Amino acid sequence: MTKHCASDDDIRFHLSRATRALHDLVDVQAEHNDLETTVGVASLIAFFHKGFSQIEAALDRADAATVLSDWESRKRTDLLENDLNGLGIGDTTANEAVQAGFSFDSQAEIWGGLYVIEGSRLGARMLVRASDHTRASAFLSESATCRFWPDFVIALTEADQSLQDRNGMVRGAEKAFQAFLSQY
Fold this sequence. Notes:
Layout: H1 11-18, H2 20-30, H3 38-61, H4 71-74, H5 77-86, H6 96-100, H7 107-127, H8 132-135, H9 138-145, H10 149-163, H11 166-181
Helix pairs in contact: 1-11, 2-11, 3-5, 3-7, 3-11, 7-9, 7-10, 7-11
């Protein structure tokens, strides 16, 4: 287990530093989409759906609601599926074979996965402003009005202090970022 570091080493910043390379790879994949076009936004939403559906399914299997009581209200795969259906994209069911091999194996890993999911709302707030096409996305628009992050940071900090397993949190965040990258 990793010792809890001094208060000047906030868990958010620790996770951000530890997963920067993977986060950057996900951002590069997302940036390949022209957000001024319906096709570009559809491609971005499909990219997010493939990652989110895997991560949320793995968090459900790991019983994330036991570590974050309002987990059910934070899930967004349904918003992505609604967006894809509205864009005329066919079946959006995630690949069960891929989902079956992906898991969060400890509470610390669950927190790492939750960090990626919750942090994505911050990026979505910027994306929703990119064009009329992005503003039409329920998934991106939800992020503009949702205020889960401050409560999440408090819960993440408490989990960091009680679990004292930053390596596990990093592993969970890495698994979550890999869920986006495994499809390409």
